[in-house]
Amino acid sequence: MTTLRTPGPTLGVVGGGQLGRMLAEAAAPLGVEVVVLDPTPDCPAAPVARDQIVAEFDDEAGIRELAARADVLTFEIELADQDVLGRVSEDSGTPVHPDPATLETIHDKLVQKRALEDAGVPVPPFRGVEDADDVREAIDDYGAPVMLKARTGGYDGRGNVPVESKADAEDALESVAGPAMVESFVDFEREISVIAVKGDGETAAFPIGENVHEDEILRETIVPAGSDEAVEERALEVAEDVLEVMDGRGVYGIELFETSEALRASEDSSGRSPRERDGDVLLNEIAPRPHNSGHWTIEGAQSSQFEQHARAVLGWPLAATDLRSPTVSVNLLGDVDEPRDAELRNLDRVLETPAANLHWYGKRQVRPLRKMGHVTIAGREGETTDDLLETARELERAVTFTSE
Amino acid sequence: MTTLRTPGPTLGVVGGGQLGRMLAEAAAPLGVEVVVLDPTPDCPAAPVARDQIVAEFDDEAGIRELAARADVLTFEIELADQDVLGRVSEDSGTPVHPDPATLETIHDKLVQKRALEDAGVPVPPFRGVEDADDVREAIDDYGAPVMLKARTGGYDGRGNVPVESKADAEDALESVAGPAMVESFVDFEREISVIAVKGDGETAAFPIGENVHEDEILRETIVPAGSDEAVEERALEVAEDVLEVMDGRGVYGIELFETSEALRASEDSSGRSPRERDGDVLLNEIAPRPHNSGHWTIEGAQSSQFEQHARAVLGWPLAATDLRSPTVSVNLLGDVDEPRDAELRNLDRVLETPAANLHWYGKRQVRPLRKMGHVTIAGREGETTDDLLETARELERAVTFTSE
Question: What's the topology of domain A125-184?
Answer without folding.
Answer: Dna Ligase; domain 1 (3.30.1490)
